[in-house]
Structures are given as C-alpha cells and as structure tokens.
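Example 3.
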Amino acid sequence: MKPKILTVDDSKTIRLIVSKAFKSFDCEVHEASNGVEGLAVASREQPDIIILDLTMPIMDGAEMLSKLKSNPDLKAIPVIMLTAEAGRENVLRIAKMGVRDYLIKPFKEELVVERVGRIIDLKPKSESTVRTRRFDDAINVLVVDDKPAIQDQIRVGLSDTPWTTHGRSQTGEAVDYCSQQLPDIILVSLSLPDGGGFSLFQMLRASNKTKAVPVFGLSVKTALEEQARAQQAGFSSIITKPIDFEDLKVKIARALHLDMSYKYFEQKDGVLVLRLPANFTPNVSNEVGNNLRSKVSEAVDSGLGKMVLDLSQVRTADISVIKLGLSALQLCQELSLKHCVIGSDAVSTECKNYEESKDWDFVGSFEEALAVLRGGSAVTA
Amino acid sequence: MIEDIEQLISSAVTEVFSTMLNLKVRLDASCNAMVNGEGHVAGSVGFIGRVSGVVFLYSTNSFARRMTSSLLGLTDLEIEGDEMVNDAMGELSNMVVGHIKSRLSDRGMPCVLTIPSIVRGNHFTIEPVSSTERRIFFFNCDGRQLVVEVLLKGT
C-alpha cells in the first residue's frame, strides 16, 4: 500500500510545494488548510506522516497536535512541524510538543523529502511504473563529464532515440540539476577531478530523490582500477570509452526495464509477426527470447491463430538465428498456431544447411505469407 | 530601534529567495521606486512585540508571477489567476518576516506575526504615521526589482 502523507498548511503555496516534492515518489499526498480540516483528514485517511504548519487560522498546529496526541487512533502518527520561526525559544517549544522533527521555512523540497524519508519508507514512482515504459518513450539522460566532447558524443550517439541528454561538467552542477529535475538515468565520468564521480555517486545514493536512479560509470577501457572501484561502490553499470552506443542503449533499456519487444513483435492483419532485425546481436536474441512466450501467449489470448517469422531483414542465418526461429516455431506448434517463414533465397539456403531448419519452407513476402496462412497450409517446423 | 535592520532584511530576503526561488538577490541602492506604470503586488506581514511593525514586499505583477512560477515549479500558463500569485507573495513575505522574527526573538525581543495580506494596484503609496520609522530597501534580483519597505514602532 502506498504511504500517505498529510500536509496541513493554510498556505496553498506550501501545500503545492510539499505535494510537488513527493511527485516522483510512490505515495499519496493529502491536504488540509487548518487544524480542524487536518484532524478530519487524519481520521479519514490515517496518514503515515503529517507535515504540520504551526501558524494557521481556525486551529493552529500546536492545538491540532495536542488533539492528535489525545486521540488513541491518531496519536501514533508521526508529525513533522513546519514553521517560519527559527528562534531558539520557538524551536524548544516545538521540540517539547512531541513532534518527530521540525522544518524551518524557507526550506528546499529535498529537505522535506529527506526528513520524511527518515520516518517512512519512500519508494520512487519509477520502481512501480517503469515496467510499462517503452524504448521509444522520452527518457531523460543526465551526462556528467568534464569533457564537452564526450557530452556531445553521447548526445549524438543517442540522437536516433527520443531520449534527451543533458550535459553537466561538474558534480555541483549535476546536484543542482537533480534538485530541479529527476533524470531517468545518470552517466558519470569516473575520471572527474578529485574523485568527483565517486563522491557524486555517494551523494546521489544518499538522497531519497535519486537513490533509485541507475548510475552508470563512464571509463576509459584500460582504466581497470577505477572500473573495479566503481563496481565495488555499486554503480549500476560501467560504460567503457570509446562508447558502443548500441550496447549503451541496451544497458539503459535494461536498467530502466524498458519494453523493447515492440521492435520485434507486431500484430498485423490478424497475424503475429516476429521480425528479426538486420543487426541480430546477442542482446537482440536475449530480448526476443525473453519475450517470446509471453508475446505469443498474448496473441493467442487475443484471438490470433497465425504467426509469421520474418527473417527478410536478417543478413545471415547463423546458429543463433536458427535457434531462436526454432524456439518460435516450436512454440507455435505447442499452441497450435499456423505459421510461416519469410526470408530471402540466401537466408533460405543458409537455413537448409542446418539440421534444425532444413525443412523450413520460405516465402518471399508478407503478402505471400498471408496467402499461405489463409489457405490453411501451415509450414512444418 | 533596530540598529542593523538593513542587515536583517538583507539576510532574510537573500536566504528566502535563494532557498525557495534559486534566485540571487542583492541590495541595490541605485534603484528607485518602481514607476514603470505596470501594476504591483505587495505582500505584507506584521509583527507585534517590544518592537512592532509591518514589512511589505512588493514587485511588479510580472515579476510576482515569475516568482510564483519559480516557487511552484509551474509554467506561466499553469498559474491560475491572481489567487496563486497572492498566496505565493504572502508566503514569501511570511518567510522573510519569520526569519526577522527569529533573529529578534534570539535578542530577547519576542513578537508574534500577523497573517499575510496582499495589496494590488497601479498607483499606491505606503504612508506611515508620524511616530513610525520607515525604511525602504531596493533589491536587484537578476535585473528585476523587489522593494522591501519596513515600518517600525517601539513600545
């Protein structure tokens, strides 16, 4: 169940700021504009924590707190008092009221999150929502590298995705950026001056806001010592320079649990199409393999009874292509799906060289595949 | 009455604006009263104790909207009418005066604060009664002007 936070403040501005501070966390924020409303919402919602303003009209924070503490159902709810008055006497008075903590205005949003995070378990929203995100969704990538050329290289290298990269040269700038926005992923140079990459990593992990954001270390291929140190420190992954951008994209997709299956699976004209790309790398093989059963089951579940294995883009049918094709066609047999294989003459010839695929019958196009499947003559696996 | 009122006001405004708005402000004696014809928004909070008074924070409408937008992380289009700006200006005034109150309290001059109020208009002046000390401070906020006016009265 999501934790509930109740903010009680007569200022709508403060309530909005508090709500905004927790926007990226998997929690509910409830609002009340004075002590009377606050007690009513607390009774109804049973919040896990209350952020309570001291000075309010109708019923102030001190009175609401005393009523909370005298109510057996509400007295255990931890309260953080919020006040614009930081004088010693005021602070002592607040401390005696039985609050768990207090915050002095003005305050940074991160401070509220940090104090609340000390009392209740805050989980970033991403943990519960990223699984539904796709590879072609907008992703915010923060690159922290003191070399503008690297920032630029990454920006260009990822430009064929809808992802946005933001470059920062220093750790302080990166921290400022994270205080304004929450990046989806952070790439940090391990060779920043004075171990800056490692201290930034510690800061990111210490903050409730960024502790779950994957952080990749950027390192020159030969700098094995700093790579080992980064792995030990808990960096999510290491990206070596010169950067292999296909590998980087796959690693980012994995770290963010992005759905890439749409690139290979498509439902078209009442048929499930499994299309293998020209660049059939081990990563693609894993991605397709991991999604194969669920995608085929999903298609069957939605009423589809036919599948096309499209190898027309594949440059060469090596054993990894054959193995994956075989798994797909065996699954079709298992689920009684009619199926068909598309491929060029060259790929067809290559397949005939393997025992596992020597009996595959190929057609040249999707239209031909449709005709075969609609004609009822399923291709044997 | 309060000898270092300038220092008190300056540190309060600087802290509140840098923390809440990420905005660098500096006292700028070269500024004059705002007479550009644009409407103004003034937030005020009073304090009552051994030393009593009222602090007004005012700026042009457009700067007040910009401050609100920055405070709430909203775009200008997302700011719903004047009410949101009023509340934001009131809260900024409350924080500034809360800071001053804390310093006075630590010096043995406790006081209580009034709730914030807002004045809007094109041509208004604040005129103190004769027994009141009046101080005006001009701040430069990244090229925009913020005026803080303090009326003080001892008991």
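The interface with chain A takes residues 15-16, 19-20, 22, 68, 71-73, 83-84, 87-88, 90-91, 94-95, 97-99, 101-106, 110, 113, 115 of chain B (CB under 8 Å). The CA atoms of residues 4 and 124 of chain B lie 28 Å apart.
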